[in-house]
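$ fold --in a.seq
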Amino acid sequence: MIKGTAHVYGDNIDTDRIIPGKYTKTLDISALAAHVLEDLDPSFRTKVKQGDILVAGDNFGCGSSREQAPIAIKEIGVSVVIARYFARIFFRNAINIGLPVLEIPNHTIAENDKLEIDLQNGKVINLTTQKSYQATPLPKVMIDILKEGGMVAYLKKNGTYILD
């Protein structure tokens, strides 16, 4: 079970809003995390706590295919991202780097709601309102990738990673 506080944002949050392009020239992921969502909410990095949950509306992660967006979110301590709908490239990048993402098309989660998430079954309980949600189920292979911490670790464990 994952438990955390919701930080809620709107629709069409593109990867430039998640991590501005001017910061994507570094390989230092802590530097990326220091600027996550700064153009959307300059206070985000100071209010988010380890294990908190990022919640959005439609089309989260649209725009470029930059992998730095989910990396920055994960590095700052977000445990799960929930959205009504994700841009497909963000969704896959998040799974590949080990950041859980759940689609809940009809959620009404509000800022600072306390959430409990059963990732395996896609169940989300809003402990603040006692409302339950069923996320679109993730395929078993994606759950397995997330359990290993991302695609590279998953491939290494399963003996299919040939570059080292």
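$ fold --in b.seq
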Amino acid sequence: MDIFLTFNVSPDLLKKCQQITGTNVTVNTEGGGDIQIVATKYRITENTKLIQSIYASLDQLGLKNVPAGVTVCKNPGAFAQSMCEQIIGLLLTSVKKIIDLNTKTHHRIFRKEIVDTLRGKKLGIIGYGEIGKKLASIARGFEMEVIAYTRSQRDDPNVNQFVASIAKLMGLSDIVVILLPLTNKTRGIINADALAMFNGKIIVNTAKADIVNKTDMLWYLKRFPEKYYLADVWWGEPIMSEEPPANCILTPHVSDQVPGDFEDAVLKACENAKKFIEGNPQNVVDPGEYY
């Protein structure tokens, strides 16, 4: 079976893809073919057997018209290290008051203030996949207590407590990090009811903006100016139709913009394409969850 990449890559990366899969790999930005390794688009033909994303998320693909006989796979763990670094960077920027203190110091206001620490904080991770596991490991290095919500609980030395509901996690956590995929079940799942349970101070979203109900979150931030929303995503990006509240720290979806990460994600997707050819694909999803 031939493999097609629906995005442009360097000749060197294309060669690595061929070495991993052991078969012919070519670029066809229009899509089509037996096996398609995709970023944001694909094209179903009568021969299509596999749609393999280079991302852990799939909502950007529009999977409604995928026939029942076509296998669709996500790519969990892609960009995980960079996303975790983005989360920690946002958290440290907030608790250490870096933006405010930098502004004051540039205005020659050299005045010490009390800042906070991550040490001892209860970190709630909503969605404990590959990225969540890596974040938990990093958090333990900061001596944080980790609480995790996932559909499949498991033994993990980096997790102090698994919980069975988002509401319970919100009530126990000082800091909440959202790492869920965007599906028809998770869209807007962080809403007024969930926010009403939150007793902590900081919510971080580097996953997808629409997991959080926009109206509810903006009202919450206005109602509680001492709380913070840290995000690498925004509703309707790249267009921002509203002025972000002052208690937001935002970056423009850059957690996957680290040189080398793209290549790693493509090669990881190729490894699963090879498993598909061998009859043992991993990370198969139901396209119906994404529309």
